[in-house]
Amino acid sequence: MEAMNFKITQPKNRELKKVIEYFLFIQTTNEGLIHNYTTYPNNNCCLALYKSNRIIWNKAANSCAISNDPSGMISSKLYGWHNKPFKVSITGSLDQVCILFNITGLSQFTPKALHQISLEDDPFSEIFGFDKNYFKKQLFATDCIQKRTELLQDFLVQQIKPRPIALMQSYIDHVGGSIMNNGHKSKNFCKENNISESTLFRASLEMIGESPKDIMTKYRFRMFLNHLNTNSKLTDIAYLLNYSDQSHLIKEVNKFTGLSPRKFASSIKKEENNLVVTY
Question: What is the pLDDT of residue 183?
Fold first, then answer.
């Protein structure tokens, strides 16, 4: 996209790799253009830092309008667990840094689930503490992506507060392995692990803020995305991912994208082989 740049870097620290999927840097350089892009539901959450932008987030429409902020204040927002397309409109210049936590990653920095953190104010301070606000200025003091990545790694590795995630991690691994193997049923997981379905449901909400079913459906949707660049027929993909039939696949894709699978496939782009967007 003209005058808009997406750049993704990966954490190198072994412990961070367990909780952080990647760092995303988004910049626009032409203040005379209006930029629009859309991302889609995933099992991760994004802590976004903005150098000098005003953010208006319409939660009902799941849209975000970004413009220049003359005050130059660094702000933060926490996005995640979307159930429909997330639409972003940018007017003016943008310098944005995003930390993409994996599904259990946020829990290793705060005991609060995503829905318990203030999304309107300054989630960075709520997660890491107001005494850590110095880091935001430190991060944006350099324009070098590599240096910013190093700063993020050094800061985050010191903020990790390990918490038990064995149950949810085991469930997530089960989802990934079972979708293509006779389908997924949370009750099967619970039976294998000698726990009740209510125990799993409660643990999922407390740690992640999503139900086990929501986690599975989004996981399967992302698996569907991985098959879009193949020549597979929809009926074959539906069978492979254990949708009940092609109609079920079409209905679920439409729920998450607002488009039919074919229209969606023709419109998406992959930035840095990781971020699925449409312009």
Answer: 65
For tokens 């254990």, the residue is 242
Closest CA to 226 of 241, 248, 213, 215: 241
The set of residues, in sequence order, having a beta carbon less than 8 Å from that of 97 and lying 6+ positions away, is 23, 24, 25, 48, 49, 139, 140, 148, 152
The pLDDT value given to residue 1: 45
What is the rounded CA–CA span in Å between residue 220 and residue 8? 23
pLDDT at 110 over 50: yes
Tell me how far the alpha carbon of residue 195 is from its chain's centroid.
29
Task: Give pTM, 2 decimals.
Answer: 0.91
Sign of CA dihedral 225, 228, 232, 233: positive
Average pLDDT over residues 62-87: 91
The bridge status of strand 63-68 relative to strand 53-58 is antiparallel
